[in-house]
């Protein structure tokens, strides 16, 4: 019983999962390398086969239904005529009064462009020089 528990725990351990992944990844990369090295051979084409023709089915005459005598025939029922609806005259729509034309709006006066004062150019900032850092020399190690 204890052996089954330890075996199942070891099979599911992350270490074994990593091992299986590494084994599979190696074979995939080798297979991909082989595909790059060896060009694929040309696939031979199959010859075109003629399409088989289906044989024509024999034509049979349609059988006629035998007439059965002795059955009573149904009398023809006339369709009732619907009464005609009286024509209703369409009422005339009242005409809309014509609207007066809107007066034209006055044109907007042109506004002169505002001349902004020119700003003086800023002075160029000189970079401060930083002294170079020199590595201290340490005595040699024995």
Automatic annotation (TrEMBL):
Disordered: annotated segments: 42-118
Biased composition (Basic and acidic residues): 48-65
Protein name: Uncharacterized protein
């Amino acid at each position: 019983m204890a052996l089954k528990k330890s075996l199942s725990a070891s099979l599911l351990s992350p270490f074994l999962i990593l091992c299986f992944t590494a084994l599979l990844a190696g074979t995939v990369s080798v297979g991909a390398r082989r595909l790059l090295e060896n060009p694929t051979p040309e696939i031979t084409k199959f010859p075109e086969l003629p399409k088989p023709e289906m044989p024509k089915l024999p034509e049979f005459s349609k059988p006629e239904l035998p007439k059965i005598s002795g059955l009573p025939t149904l009398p023809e029922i006339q369709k009732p005529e619907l009464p005609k609806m009286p024509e209703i005259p369409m009422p005339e729509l009242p005409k809309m009064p014509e609207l007066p034309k809107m007066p034209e709006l006055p044109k907007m006066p042109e506004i002169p462009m505002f001349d902004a004062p020119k700003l003086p150019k800023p002075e160029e900032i000189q970079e401060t020089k930083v002294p170079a850092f020199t590595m201290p020399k340490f005595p040699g190690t024995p």
